[in-house]
UniProtKB/TrEMBL annotation:
PANTHER family: CYCLASE, PTHR34861. This is Cyclase family protein. It comes from the Bacteria. Pfam families: Cyclase.
Length: 319
C-alpha cells in the first residue's frame, strides 16, 4: 500500500457512529458517563477472595520502560540524599532532619497511562466536536483532568487473547476483532455485559524485554483492528474503558487500509471511550487462569494534571 492510496481518517470514518453531544455540549469524559453509582455498587459485589492486583508497570524498571517510538522513558533524578549533607548545600532544619527527594522527567503518556479524550484528533476536531486549536499549549478541552476528577470504577473482564490463541505473546501486527473478544470470553466462561471495562492481554511487551532495540524495528503492535461492525459493537455494548497491555491498544497500522491508529479516532475521538495503555496484566492473568474467574472490581484514577493529554495511573483490580 503506497502513501497515496492510504485514505484519510475523515474519509475512512465518514459514516462511523459518534457519541458527540450525547452527554451535553460541555462533556469531557465521554463513555465514562456509563459508569455511575449503580455500576460501582455492582462491581463491589464481585469482590470475593479479596485478592488485589495493581496493574501499573514499574516506572524506572532497570529492565527498561516500553514507550511509543519518539517518546523517552521517564528519568528519575535524585535531588537530596544522605550525601547532600556532606557539603553545605543541603537544607538545615532544627534537630538535624535529613531526607531524600527526587523528581521525574516523564512523558505523561509513558508507562501505564490514561489518554485524555483530546489526545488524538483529525480534521480539526477532537472528542465532542471541540476545536483542535483548543489543544495548543495544553488541552483546554477533554484533557485528562476531568477523568482524574471523577475516577473510573466498574466491572472489568479480563480477555486473555494470548492464552486464547495458545501463545506466549501475540505477534507483531497480529489482529483480533470484537468477534474474537466474544469467542475468548465464551472460552473463558465469562459473560460480557454492557458497560464492562475490557482488559485485554496480549503479553506483547514481553518482546520488548526479550528483543531489546530490535523490538522497535518495523514497529507494529498487535491489537484490535477497525471495522464498522467492531465500532458498532463497542457502541452497543456501551464500553466505557478499553485497557490493554500494549502501548497503543490497537494494531499500529491497519492492514486493511494502511492507516495508523484508526481506533484511537473511531473509539476514543468519536465514541469517547477512555484508553488505558501499557497495563501490566500478567499476575492478574495468571490468577484468572488458575481460578477460572475473569470478572472483577476495577478502580483507577489517573493523576490530576491540568491541561494534560494523558497521565500515569496504577489501576487496581480486586477479585
Ligand atoms: C499515540 O496516540 C501516538 O500514542 P498512545 O495513545 O499510545 O499514547
Amino acid at each position: 500500500m503506497t502513501e497515496s492510496t492510504v485514505p484519510a481518517l475523515g474519509e475512512l470514518l465518514k459514516d462511523a457512529p459518534s457519541n458527540w453531544g450525547k452527554w451535553g455540549a460541555d462533556d469531557e469524559v465521554g463513555a465514562l458517563n456509563y459508569l455511575g453509582p449503580e455500576q460501582a455498587i455492582a462491581a463491589a459485589g464481585l469482590i470475593r477472595s479479596g485478592k488485589v492486583f495493581t496493574l501499573q508497570r514499574l516506572i524506572g524498571d532497570p529492565k527498561g520502560d516500553p514507550v511509543w517510538p519518539g517518546r523517552t522513558p521517564a528519568e528519575r533524578t535524585q535531588i537530596l540524599d544522605e550525601s547532600s549533607w556532606d557539603g553545605d548545600d543541603a537544607p538545615a532544619f532544627p534537630g538535624g532532619l535529613h531526607y531524600a527527594d527526587d523528581k521525574i522527567n516523564a512523558f505523561l503518556q509513558g508507562s501505564t497511562q490514561y489518554d485524555a479524550l483530546g489526545h488524538v484528533w483529525h480534521d480539526g476536531q477532537l472528542y465532542n466536536g471541540y476545536d483542535a486549536r483548543t489543544t495548543v499549549g495544553g488541552l483546554d478541552k477533554a484533557s485528562v483532568e476531568p477523568i482524574a476528577q471523577r475516577g473510573v470504577v466498574g466491572r472489568a473482564v479480563l480477555l486473555d487473547m494470548a492464552r486464547f490463541r495458545g501463545k506466549d505473546t501475540l505477534e507483531s501486527a497480529e489482529t483480533y476483532t470484537h468477534e474474537d473478544l466474544i469467542a475468548c470470553a465464551e472460552a473463558q466462561g465469562v459473560e460480557l455485559r454492557k458497560r464492562d471495562i475490557l482488559l485485554i492481554r496480549t503479553n506483547y511487551l514481553q518482546l520488548f524485554f526479550d528483543l531489546g532495540d530490535k523490538f522497535y524495528e518495523g514497529f507494529c503492535e498487535p491489537g484490535l483492528v477497525y471495522s464498522p461492525e467492531l465500532v458498532e459493537w463497542f457502541q452497543e455494548m456501551e464500553i466505557p474503558n478499553l485497557v490493554t497491555d500494549t502501548i497503543a491498544n490497537e494494531v499500529t497500522t491497519d492492514p486493511n487500509n494502511g492507516v495508523a491508529l484508526v481506533l484511537h479516532n473511531a473509539l476514543m475521538r468519536n465514541l469517547g471511550i477512555a484508553f488505558t495503555e501499557i497495563a501490566d496484566l500478567e499476575q492478574l492473568a495468571e490468577d484468572c487462569a488458575a481460578d477460572g474467574v475473569y470478572e472483577m472490581f476495577y478502580a483507577a484514577a489517573p493523576l490530576k494534571v491540568a491541561l494534560g493529554s494523558g497521565s500515569p495511573v496504577n489501576p487496581v483490580a480486586i477479585k
